[in-house]
Amino acid sequence: MRLISAILDRARHQVGLQLLLSALVCLVGPAILLAAVGALESSVLGWALYLVATAYLLTCLLMLVEANLAVRRRARPLPPPARDGWDPTVTLLVVAYLPNEADIIEETLHHLCHDVEMPDGRLQVLLAYNTPNAMPEVEARLHELAARTPQLDVLRVHGSTSKGENIMGALPHARGEVTAILDSDHHLQGDAAQLALRWIDAGYDVVQGRCVIRNSDRNLLTRIVAAEFEVIYGIAHTGRSLLTDTAIFGGANGWWRTDVLRQLGVDHRMLTEDIDVSMRALLSGRRIVHERQVISTELAPTTFAAWWRQRTRWAQGWFQVTLRHTPDVKASRVMSPWVRFYWLVMLVWREMFPVISLQVFTVLIAQAIIGLPFHGIRDPFLIGTTLVTVLSGAVLGAAAWHVGSARGRQDLGLRWFIAYCLLSVPYTVLRNTVAQAAMVREIVGDRRWMVTRRDPQTPRDGRRRRQQPTRPPVARPQVSRAQAAAPATVKTSTPTAETA
């Protein structure tokens, strides 16, 4: 026991050891066990392979149902414009960890202040940032920008070391009846606010918009992520919203009734505080809708290391949410039986599938250990499930192209959607590997925030590309503000992690 305790303690601080434990526990150990059992009864290996194939089949069928809905209801009708007399103020809450995002934050603020269509005096852009050390030059430029931009407030949240703490520190300063939470690399489409407000006026408490990658031309990775986002937001999120009239807040481009967000709060201890607050909103009877016409563009990670850190945090955060909220969903009397069942599938199956799906390699290793030939190519069920798995990737890619955002279709072109179809199976295996490693990371107690590096959008020649306004700047008169142009400060709770 002391040896195991020592290994777990070291794994808490060593990512390489976490990966090794993941491989031993989820791949090597089961392979040895299956080989031992298979040596006594070879049919066990066949049934194990059937189990894995069934897991792939069920997951693919669910994705195809979502794709069917997303394509068939491509032109989802928007609610009518807001009722007469309802003219809400909107706060665009931009959250930043300044050392990581100093190169992009001014461009983002300029875009949001001048390119988002809102009536004069009805828009507040509130930057809430944290930094472990003062950055005088950058902070001075932000103060100057706020001084000459009536709708911009700049807030340094002292004591904060997380995105959740930045949000909670900023909420008392948000003047809007509706608050949109944005990461520091997000550029809203001009009509995003007006479209989101239609759903708020229709009775929803949260509107999750569509996120589109705008730096897809950087390299192969950014192109794959851009195509992946077209599938996630154009197919999965849309299909889920149409199927169950529910959705999740994905951390950015999420539009909240400000009073609801203040009531629920954001738990900075969760690595995916967005999914956590989404579940608490749904469990309290709040309504969330996904609208793919509410568009924001963002920057994809440009290196594999940055992508790995980002996806590890996402996967570990989902695992935390599953552990925390599955009992509440199961016992909920607020959710309808159908929605409750769907979310149990979303939470529990989402964590089970990465482990189960990779067991195909476990079975193959076990067969190799005991010298059994592989007969899967002659098994009708295994052939059928393999075809469904491969073809579902092609179907999802085609559906994503069909309902793709204008920018995604223009920047990627049809060939990169086809490339994503061809790479969908190995890319899914890679994502499942990350999810498996993230579970081990949570189990050993490593909950450090993994910062995702933000690189300015640059073309291939390496020179920075200035984002051009999508619409002419809107002139706005000076309006009164609760804060002075200089940034306010807020004390928050005990530090836990750095904002990415």
From TrEMBL:
<feature type="region of interest" description="Disordered">
    <location>
        <begin position="451"/>
        <end position="500"/>
    </location>
</feature>
<feature type="compositionally biased region" description="Basic and acidic residues">
    <location>
        <begin position="451"/>
        <end position="461"/>
    </location>
</feature>
<protein>
    <submittedName>
        <fullName>Putative N-acetylglucosaminyltransferase</fullName>
    </submittedName>
</protein>
<feature type="transmembrane region" description="Helical">
    <location>
        <begin position="45"/>
        <end position="65"/>
    </location>
</feature>
<feature type="transmembrane region" description="Helical">
    <location>
        <begin position="413"/>
        <end position="430"/>
    </location>
</feature>
<dbReference type="GO" id="GO:0016020">
    <property type="term" value="C:membrane"/>
</dbReference>
<dbReference type="InterPro" id="IPR001173">
    <property type="entry name" value="Glyco_trans_2-like"/>
</dbReference>
<keyword id="KW-0328">Glycosyltransferase</keyword>
<dbReference type="GO" id="GO:0016757">
    <property type="term" value="F:glycosyltransferase activity"/>
</dbReference>
<feature type="transmembrane region" description="Helical">
    <location>
        <begin position="381"/>
        <end position="401"/>
    </location>
</feature>
<dbReference type="InterPro" id="IPR050321">
    <property type="entry name" value="Glycosyltr_2/OpgH_subfam"/>
</dbReference>
<keyword id="KW-0472">Membrane</keyword>
<keyword id="KW-0812">Transmembrane</keyword>
<dbReference type="Pfam" id="PF13632">
    <property type="entry name" value="Glyco_trans_2_3"/>
</dbReference>
<keyword id="KW-0808">Transferase</keyword>
<feature type="transmembrane region" description="Helical">
    <location>
        <begin position="341"/>
        <end position="369"/>
    </location>
</feature>
<feature type="compositionally biased region" description="Polar residues">
    <location>
        <begin position="490"/>
        <end position="500"/>
    </location>
</feature>
<feature type="domain" description="Glycosyltransferase 2-like">
    <location>
        <begin position="180"/>
        <end position="366"/>
    </location>
</feature>
<dbReference type="InterPro" id="IPR029044">
    <property type="entry name" value="Nucleotide-diphossugar_trans"/>
</dbReference>
<keyword id="KW-1133">Transmembrane helix</keyword>
